[in-house]
Here is the input.
Amino acid sequence: MPPEVPPAEDLTGAALLAACSALANPHRLRILGALADGRQYVSLLARRLGMSRPLLHMHLQKLQSAGLVTGELELSEDGKAVKYFEAVPFALTITPQTVKASLPTLPDTGKAATATETAIGTATETDTEKDTEK
Here is the structure.
């Protein structure tokens, strides 16, 4: 079972990024809206939203990994496996203070940027040196 979204004041940087990323898609907002009235099984949800089941599963995975929905596999009366999803109650209030409090726990992205900047800077210096030598 995925972790529930913690209260905004307790959000880590990773949880804040996951929630914002999951909510930043119109398909996923429609899915959450459809699940607001209660749990639904995937085939019915796909039909109601007019989306393929593989696409729906992809979006449900993103929502589930952010802790916004949960899924449960059940057996129907005829023995078929049916996957149900439901929305997890959550409330996000994002303020500048919330963002500031989550900064120490943001995933480290500085190393990749530094490596890229270094590579670009080196290439630029090398090109400049070649131009000067001509």
In short: The beta strands are 40-41, 69-75, 81-87. The mean pLDDT is 81.
